[in-house]
Amino acid sequence: YSEIVRVCRDAQASGVSLNSITYSLLINSYGSLGLIDTAEGMLVEMKKQGLRPTEQAYLPLIEDAFNSGDKDKAFQFFDDMKEHRIEITSLSYNLLINLTKNDPKASKETYLHMKENNITPTHGTFSALIESQVAGKDLASALEIYEDAISKNLSSFYARKPLLQEITHETIDFVRVILEKLKYEKKMNPSKEALPLLTRSYADNCFYKILQLEDTELLKSFWDYLKSDGLDLTTRALVSYSHFLERLPESPITKELISQLKSE
């Protein structure tokens, strides 16, 4: 970034006029170097020259305003882009969603605004949104956004990961629904070439949490999902599974699970 600044400044000193691209490069470079006041000064200078900034020029300014606690100023930059009719893409919206992850309501409002303006979300949009909603304990909202990601074929491991981070007695019903959604998502993409929806290590981690709940039906539902996703539990997980089943009273479900376990 220092080299970009040097080259642009040398060109300007030699009488070369900067255009919108070089000004945007300077703004982004100063912002990346932490020289935000200088970057903002470049934005003002650029406008005085009658040049229109690019979206990329605003991103470091928005991020710094947020990080310094001045959210109003961050949104002023965002409004400034709209006022100057600068094309706003998922880059800006994703940045705002990531910056407001600790405020689930604000991150979701940004997403709804994104939809209203027909901005196409990305995998990163949904990953940050779901993480935000789960952290804020708004599981209904997290599920709604996950369904939206599936409908747009933009679900990913990083979007699914937060959904099963909270496996407790209080979230059992939510976990049941997520497992059904995972099965549905796998059904929609049944190709044997497709990668599993979860990773093996993450699946093992979820499995141990469900074991601790001692909910046989939920355990069976998760087991069925793993089989549909082509994921085999590790030997260590299977041993824990076996010990757990041995402690349970005999029932049709435990008989079925023990039979499946022996087949492994």
Low confidence ranges: none
- Kindly report how far apart the N and C termini lie: 56 Å
Query: How would the global form be characterised?
Result: elongated
Main sheet? Answer: none
- Number-wise, the strands total 0
Order of helical and strand elements? HHHHHHHHHHHHHHH
Share of β-strand residues: under 5%
**Helix content, binned percent:** over 70%
What does the radius of gyration come to?
Answer: 25 Å
Q: What's the rounded overall pLDDT mean? A: 83
Distinct helical segment count: 15
| Structural class assignment | mainly alpha
Question: Quick gist of this model?
Answer:
It is built from 15 helices and no strands. The chain has helices spanning 2-13, 20-32, 36-48, 55-67, 71-83, 90-99, 104-116, 123-135, 139-151, 157-160, 172-188, 200-213, 216-228, 235-247, 252-263.
Q: Can you describe what's shown?
A:
This protein has 264 residues and is an all-alpha fold. It has helices at residues 2-13, 20-32, 36-48, 55-67, 71-83, 90-99, 104-116, 123-135, 139-151, 157-160, 172-188, 200-213, 216-228, 235-247, 252-263. Helices cover 70% and strands 0% of the residues. Helix 4 (55-67) packs parallel to helix 6 and helix 14 (235-247) packs antiparallel against helix 15 (252-263). It is elongated and about 85 Å long.
Helix and strand topology:
Elements (H helix, E strand, L loop, with lengths): L1 H12 L6 H13 L3 H13 L6 H13 L3 H13 L6 H10 L4 H13 L6 H13 L3 H13 L5 H4 L11 H17 L11 H14 L2 H13 L6 H13 L4 H12 L1
Helix pairs in contact: 1-2, 2-3, 2-4, 3-4, 4-5, 4-6, 6-7, 6-8, 7-8, 8-9, 9-11, 11-13, 12-13, 12-14, 14-15
